[in-house]
Amino acid sequence: MELMTIAPWHARPHRGKVTSTDPAAIAPMSLVESERTFRSLFDDNPQPMFVLDLQSFRYLSVNAAALSLYGYTREEFLALEQSDLRVLGQAAQLHEDRLALAHGTKLHFRDTQHRTRTGEVIDVEINIKPLAFAGRPAAIVVVSDVTGRVRLQAELEYQALHDVLTRLPNRALFTDRLDHALARRRRDGGLLAVLFLDLDNFKTINDGLGHSAGDELLRNVAQRLSGELRARDTAARFGGDEFAVLLENIKDAAQVAQVCDRIASALRAGCHIRGTLVSVQVSIGVTYSGDASTSAELLRNADGAMYGAKAHGKACFRTYEPAMHERVAQRLTMESDLRRALDEGGLRVHYQPVLALPGMRVVGIEALVRWQHPARGTIPPADFIPMAEANGLILPLGRWVLEQACGQVRTWQREIDGLADINAAINISPRQLEDPAFVDDVRRALATSGLRPEKLVLEITESTMMRDVAAAATRLGELSALGIRLAIDDFGTGQSSLGQLRRFPVHILKVDRSFVETIGHDQVARDLLSGVVKLGESLGLDVVAAGVETREQALVVQSMGKLYVQGHLYSRPLDAEAMTAYLMTRRRVQLSQTEGVERPVASCDEHLSRRDGRRAEDQRAVL
């Protein structure tokens, strides 16, 4: 064993003048210089160091940096035993360390923890090198405090596997745990379930109260969700308002149903966010380990089941069925195709006129979006608008329709005589009304097109306004302040009362087509329509009867006095070119009536029949 030899620090070597050239005579000076060098490097070194006696395993010396790190005085430190610094569980390593050092082995420890005088545990890296100190086998210990680095690394690793906002596991950690759970099931048997959760009304809350309040709500949801699970279960946040749950070692589906009910009840109980009592509803999709063999398949199945719960009316849970996978695949394909259509100009705006009774004068044009799919043909709005509403595409889609319609109606106002005062009517979805940027979108569309604000009519359904009466009243007030007009679409099908109706700056009531379609033979339907017309008159509101398709319906509507009509009897929705032809035809009709000229006037459908060689009745039946 070769040991570094250091003279005792308390030795007093000869300091007289050395005149002999005998090496033995100058040796004491070499020891002095060696001692001074060592003491300088040791005492003044910013790296914490101490010397350890390999026989007693007590400390022989310590430098100032080590005293500062551990918080001891020099006397306290030198009175310690080596095991005093090590945390519980590491003392067993001392004997092996002593044997290795006695044989001259240098030691390096990376993942080591020491205790300071206050009991704080710090992370350290240690390098130990044998040496002879004061004639005794010893070792110099060099300590590096890596607590900050270790904690930063641990935090980065934690963040890589956990959601920063809720501190729940994220998708990566959840998937890893699910993989291990599936492996245990294949080995030991048993049943597990995966739940996929989506908050039904989170966006309304988030937009209404602000994003910081939304974050607080998500943290509350995470806490309540975890509180309804066993210690062995895993709750994770996948992003946004989506969560997942892994239930291991479950008995049967009844147990899972109980968990779903507890979760729904816990969230529905409500919590106070910024002084507002907020209640959350959740849609849950459930799948079992027998439904698939991989974590990816189980998550896909649970996601499909969750969308099944959404389609069933939300605020419920649904269990995966094989047919759901096909529906999910179709939905994802449709979403992708819709995004492409929006980006590449695959959507079109069609227009349907609104006419005034009596006189049949065109007073407005309603804009209706249409999707001509390259493979599937015409896709009805009822098939893609709800999907766009669910995935957020309704916002860019609605913005595009708003810009197109305002621009097109303004063109007709300028280029066709007698149409300077026609309105542009546009349907507004719930997501648009909840979007904080929507008022700016409307303001921008008006400024770009040059359409006067009072010539823009925004149609909002009763159910949309009733989702959050206070928030809707505020947003509609902002829109009304711009000068635009507001219409309640599908009036009579929602849950509004006259008291609530007075809270909204409404100008138009648009009667739902379900009331109009039976008025030809149903006296109750006639009375209801008549009541709405009288209600509009008493409140100073215009009334539009939508969905007029037969002459019998038209005669009943006309008998009710001054109101407005819309429907296939007068014109089906047309593209911009066909609507231009229709408007010019209507203009010629009005001029003929004004001049008293008796001439047959072609309807819009007849005009199109001559142009395309198709029968008017066939066209009238097409939406």
Search tags:
623 residues, alpha/beta, Beta-Lactamase, TIM Barrel, 3 domains, eight-stranded mixed beta barrel, 24 helices, disordered C terminus
The CATH topology label of the largest domain is: TIM Barrel
Taking the sheet with the most strands, its summary is: 8 strands, mixed, barrel
- Derived structural class: alpha/beta
**Overall helicity:** 40-55%
Beta-strand share of residues: 15-25%
CATH architecture descriptor name of the largest domain: Alpha-Beta Barrel
User: What is the CATH superfamily label of the largest domain?
Assistant: EAL domain
- CATH top level of the largest domain is Alpha Beta
The outline comes out as elongated
Number of strand segments: 22
Task: Going across the biggest sheet, name each strand in turn.
Answer: 14-15-17-18-19-20-21-22
Rg computed from alpha carbons, rounded to a whole number of angstroms = 40 Å
Q: What is the domain total for the residues?
A: 3
Distance between the termini: 98 Å
What's the short story on this structure?
The protein has 623 residues and is an alpha/beta fold.
